[in-house]
Amino acid sequence: MRWTAAHIPDLTGRVAVVTGANVGLGFETARLLAEHGAQVVLACRDRAKAESAASRLPGPVSTVGLDLASLESVRTAAGTLRNGLTRLDFLINNAGVGMSPAPATADGFEIHLGTNHLGHFALTGLLLETLLATPGARVVNVSSLGHRRGHMHWDDLQLTGPHTLPEAYFQSKLANLLFTYELNRRVTAVAAHPGNAHTAFTRHLRPWQRVIASPRLRLLNGWLLQPAAIGALAAVRAAVDPALRGGEYVGPRGFTGYPEVTASSDRSYDEADQRRLWTVSTELTGVDYRLPSAR
């Protein structure tokens, strides 16, 4: 039986933070949560676009500025969230860049690893106390089918040597999963992937690839790409489905489809790599996930 929006329970009283929620998968994720009663915070780099998106959603919706490519911005956003929220049921780490030719992050990290992984690693750690204080809280990290082609370049994580944009992106998506499985030892964490969906992600593809991915050709590419509203169901299920356990991976079994519990790559389950990435991420971000001794 396929899992659809009809399976989303009443979320009244629950609080969700969704990163990158002003467009695409993030917006559809926020919409599904808001339509079922959740109080949703859109955490986005462009505050004006976030406010515009919030105006199109029902219920109590707010925004916070968050640039995951800047640890200073991450710390500021986390402080705002800690001060403004009494609980945090769902932290959905959705935002990211893909195949981006942009330079390094503000902190000098490779743009994909810095934004897709290190920014979310820092944000989650800075919100950990609020998450642990909320019964049943979950962290959802959105990965990609592309993680299967990913390798951790331990000798050059920032890819300062010759590399391709797909190589950088796939490494960051593998990092999302290694992070999820190690994080689950501290707070309930579930990974999700949307399959292939029509989103702004395609803006960095080559011209012929953008043509193939165009929504105008959905009668031809429907087997390869699905609407963002369907792709977003994976992250929503990962957050709200009570039958799921921490450490599971949810998404279509193929390029498209409704979310199921599935398996990620063998490399993502390497516990030594999970611990190694955790240690490196702590050193790079300065966020160590240790709670005050009183707790």
From TrEMBL:
**Mind telling me what this protein is named?**
SDR family NAD(P)-dependent oxidoreductase
PANTHER family named among the record's database cross-references: PHOSPHATIDYLINOSITOL-GLYCAN BIOSYNTHESIS CLASS F PROTEIN, PHOSPHATIDYLINOSITOL-GLYCAN BIOSYNTHESIS CLASS F PROTEIN-RELATED
Question: Does the keyword Oxidoreductase feature in the UniProt annotation?
Answer: yes
Q: Name one Pfam family in it.
A: adh_short
Coiled coil feature spans: none
UniProt cross-references to SUPFAM superfamilies, sorted A to Z? NAD(P)-binding Rossmann-fold domains
| Highest rank taxon of the organism | Bacteria
What are the record keywords, sorted? Oxidoreductase
Family, similarity comment: Belongs to the short-chain dehydrogenases/reductases (SDR) family.
